[in-house]
Amino acid sequence: MKTITLIKGDGIGPEITDAVMKVINAAGVAIDWDIQSAGAGVIETEGSPLPERVIESVKKNKIALKSPVTTPIGKGFRSVNVQLRKELDLYANLRPCYNLPNVKTRYDKVDIVVVRENTEDLYAGIEHQVDENTAESIKRITRPASERIAKFAFDYAINNNRKEVCVVTKANICKLSDGLFLESARRIASLYPQIKFREILVDNCCMQLVQNPNQFDVLLLPNLYGDIVSDLCAGLIGGLGIAQGANIGTNYAVFEPVHGSAPDIAGEDKANPTAMLMSAIEMLKHIGEFEAANNIKLALFETLNANIMTADLGGKAKCSEFTQAIIDRLFVLSTK
Ligand code: ATP
User: Fold this and answer.
1) What is the chain's pLDDT, residue by residue, as a tens digit (336 residues)?
2) Do 196 and 140 fall into the same domain?
3) Which residues are catalytic?
4) In what order do the strands lie in the sheet with 111-117?
5) What's the gap in Å between 67 CA and the centre of ligand 1?
6) Owning domain of residue 201
7) Does residue 207 form part of some domain?
8) Number of domains in the chain
């Protein structure tokens, strides 16, 4: 039996985690979950939102499924997400965005994969107070990290039958930092002549995404633009409730939804577990459980097609009802 770390976070984290565990269980996959709590809920008892035991557990098991944790704004602890990605060197953040059946959106046939660099840029948190009225953040971009993520994007394109990688920067303004990211992407692109390479500035990219998203295939971005653009892409396909994600490094992989802990709806049985479930489907594929992954996806799609949806998608189902509807369809699929 495979042991996988399961990080239960804050807000809607526990609700969507329970939902996903139930669905995976119903799909017949035996997983020994190494359950680790993290986030605001453990600060008081353990003195840190990311206790060392959580990192140790992922290092031991190599794979984790993670629900969202609250990032305190302003002073306080460093973001759990950023720290986890950094400590495990999960350098690639992969966020596939495509339309789900029966989910009404402005555009059909959106199929974009956001590849976001995960370890540097303004996210490195190198900040200082110059004086009482001035603060500075350092946007650190290095050639090895930029080439590594560019290579990841092109390899992904090859392995997943994609046609184009588009690098997104603001290299006309941040000439040195984004300039280096762009230059690195250009060099790697020259090694993959079979994949089309395109360059775009982030402001124009946002406008183009909103006007004509179907023109994009794989997007390659530094950390901060990647964060913002992936929320934009989530909006194109129906919102954060369905946007999946994965953080991948050489030795470890952590699968997690794009959204945060949504404290505004926590504990109300309103959360949409789809984003976490889609992330879990990718995790199942990663460990070779292709049949279960496929069945869960089919059951999820059938549920959406039956117009059973949570409130964020305009439906009336509670998180628990939506989850049960998926499980009911899974049982029918497995007895076919
Ligand atoms: P973070 O800073 O942790 O990324 P955020 O500020 O981006 O968090 P989220 O927690 O992602 O905020 O939520 C943004 C909005 O989307 C909230 O109104 C929230 O209720 C909604 N939302 C996010 N995830 C879900 C979900 N799974 N189901 C339903 N609504 C969601």
Assistant:
1) 899 999 999 999 999 999 999 999 999 999 999 999 998 888 888 888 899 999 999 999 999 999 999 866 655 677 888 889 989 999 999 999 999 999 999 999 999 999 999 999 998 889 999 999 999 999 999 999 999 999 999 999 999 999 999 999 999 999 999 999 999 999 999 999 999 999 999 999 999 999 999 999 999 999 999 999 999 999 999 999 999 999 999 999 999 999 999 999 999 999 999 999 999 999 999 999 999 999 999 999 999 999 999 999 999 999 999 999 999 999 988 776
2) yes
3) 123, 170, 203, 227
4) 31-37, 2-8, 63-66, 253-255, 246-248, 92-98, 111-117, 218-221, 164-169, 196-201
5) 12
6) 105-237
7) yes
8) 2
